[in-house]
Amino acid sequence: xxxxxxxxxxxxxxxxxxxxYAAGNAVLNVEGEIQINGTTVINKAGVFVGxxxxxxxxxxxxxxxxxxxxxxxxxxEKKGNDYSGVTVRTITENSWKEVTTDTSSYQKDPEANPYxxxxxxxxxxxxxxERSECVAVSCDKAYTKPVEVVTKSINESKSTIAGDIITSxxxxxxxxxxxxxxxGADRKVETFKNLSxxxxxxxxxxxxxxxxxxxxxxxxxxxxxxxxxxxSGNQISYSAKxxxxxxxxxxxxxxxxxxxxxxxxxxxxxxxxxxxxxxxxSLGKLVxxxxxxxxxxxxxxxxxxxxxKIRQDGGFAR
Length: 318
Description:
Number of strands: 17
Structural class: alpha+beta
Oligomer: single chain
């Protein structure tokens, strides 16, 4: 609806009927919502959801579906002192999968040397063979040498949806110096019901959320009781728009959104149109994105994919 047309309706309907209101209780009735240039400013419930003027509307209101991640393969890298992590996130129309490989190293503290011989005499005592054996085990050292330990942790999680059934699987493996020292796996099946979707037209600087209710149908552990119901969701709160942002994948994006709520995060959350997360505290920085051949926006309108994302990301409440 054009602004001039809206102004005419308001002036003729509201101002013009104000005198009639006193005499005849006239009412201006609008069925449905009121839009300006295709953007809803008053919804069908009569709630004002737009900005106070068109300039503010244009600058501060964005369509959230444009910032959703798309079907395809994302690769993120996160680095620190003696630490590096790589996450491969694969998204399809009905599944989210993440495989994170963390690599770190540390010096293992020296331990008492079981071969230490304080009485060993290097001045000719013992045979040549005994001397060689002593050298091999450092029998003259009270403690072993520090050992560099390289630790690799591999965590894989996947959530798949069919109808209102979500199946989630997890597995992990910890490897030290190429030897597996710990591993495990789990599986859970849940039903879900969408309770609330975030408004498609989001006002920057406000807080909204996507919320779903889950019920555990079966699981592979002892701490999630079958039949348990809980509510879980994903908070959305962006504080600023970045006109131009060049991500770690060397691509430049326009009108990205910045979430500065976690002031202690080394990688603040930034999402960009057409690709979604380009950096975050948990994932690090996006270094590669390969769209699937049939890539299309997942969008907030899909309750199923909303529930999948909440489940894959862990949600904010339980």
